[in-house]
Amino acid sequence: MRRSFKFPLRPTVHQQVALTACLDDHRALYNAALEHRRTAYRMAGVSITYGVQSADLKHIRADDADGQGRWSFSCRQATLRRLDKAFAAFFARVKAGRTPGFPRFKGKGWFDTVTWPKDGDGCRWDSQPEHPSATFVRLQGIGHVRVHRHRPVRGTVKTVSVKREGHRWYVILSCDDVPAEPLPSTGAVVGIDLGVASLVTTSDGDHLDNPRHLSASADRLAAAQRDLARKKRGSARRRKAVARVAALHGKVRRQRLDGAHKAALQLVGDYDVIAHEDLRIANMTRSASGTVETPGTNVAQKSGLNRSILDAGWGVFLTILADKAESAGRELIAVNPRNTSRTCAACGHVAKENRLTQAEFHCQRCAHTAHADVNAAINIMRAGLALRDVTQAA
C-alpha cells in the first residue's frame, strides 16, 4: 500500500528564510511557465508541452545560478509537472462540458508546497541516522532540517514534500510498500449515517458527536477578519492580520482532522464491515442563490446548512475511514443514499411523511417509531449487505 506521513519541521531562522526563498523561486518558475504557454498559444497558436519546458530548465538554471540554480533540478521538474497537470485537468473539464477554470497565476501565499520526486535526488530523509535523539531531512540549498517525528515511518520513502501552513512548516513523505496492520476479526457489521447533529450515527444506536469546530471559533474568526478588513494592503500590519486569520483556520482544520481520525479508528476497531452513504458532498453544498433572472429560494437556510455540512467534515472523515479500513483489513461499502432516511426499517414503507422532524421517524403504515438517523443507518447497513451479496455472487 501507499501511505503518506506528515511531520512538523523545526527549522532554524536561517532555514526558514531559505525555505521561503525556495517557495518563492518555485512560484516564479510556475508563473513564468504559465505565461510561456499562454503567450505561445496567443501569438503563434502553439501548445507548449512539459517536455519543451523541462528542456529549457538547464538554460534557466545556468542563467540564474544564485536563484533558480540553487535548487534541485528534479524538484523544478516537479513544479513544471504540477502546471502540466493543471492544464490536463482544464482540458478534461472542457471535454466534459463543465466550467473549465483556466490555470491561474499563483500569488504570494498561494503556492505553499514543493516536492522532491525521489528520495536521494536533492533531498534525503533521515539524513543523520547516527543522531541519538533527533531526525533530520536534508534539502538541497537549505541544509539538514530537524523533524519532529512522532511516529515511525513504514515502507519505502519515494517522494518528499515540504509544505507551509501559516507560520508552520511540515514535511510530507509518500511511501510505497507500507505493510498492512490487520486487526482481529469482530464479526460485527454496521451501517453509518452522517449528519450535522451527530457526525456519525450507527445502526446499533450509537451517536458520535459533531464538535462543530468552526462554529466554536466563529466569533474569534469574525473579529480577526474584521481587523484584517481595516488594514492597508501591503502593510506589515495586514500581513500580521492575515497570519492571525490563517492560524485560526489552521487550528480548526487540525481539530477537524483529529476528530475524524478518532471517530474512524473507533469504527474500524469495532466492526468488520462498514456501510456508508455514497454522498456527493460538492453537489449537496452547492449554492442555492441562483441567477438574477431566476433567483433561488430559501437561500439563507441553504447557506446555513452548507456551512454546517462543511463544518462537520464529511469528506475528510470518509477519506480517513477508507484509509484506516484498508490498512486494518476491514470492508467498506458505499451505498446509494436515495430514500434511506424515508424508508421504514420495520416494514419498508417509503414516504416523505415518515420523517416528522430531524430526529424523529414515525412510519405512516406500521406506526414504527425510532430515531431518524438510527433508522437510516439500519437501511444503509441492509443496502450495503445486499450490494455485497450481489457482488460476491457475480
From TrEMBL:
Domain Probable transposase IS891/IS1136/IS1341: 181-287
PROSITE patterns: PROKAR_LIPOPROTEIN
Keywords per UniProt: DNA recombination, DNA-binding, Endonuclease, Hydrolase, Metal-binding, Nuclease, Transposition, Zinc
UniProt-listed InterPro entries: Cas12f1-like_TNB, RNA-guided_DNA_endo/Transpos, Transposase, Transposase_put_HTH
Residues annotated as domain Cas12f1-like TNB: 314-380
Domain Transposase putative helix-turn-helix: 1-42
Presence of keyword Cell cycle: no
GO MF annotation, one: endonuclease activity
One matching Pfam family: HTH_OrfB_IS605
NCBIfam families: guided_TnpB
Family to which this protein belongs: In the C-terminal section; belongs to the transposase 35 family. In the N-terminal section; belongs to the transposase 2 family.
Name of the molecule in the record: RNA-guided endonuclease InsQ/TnpB family protein
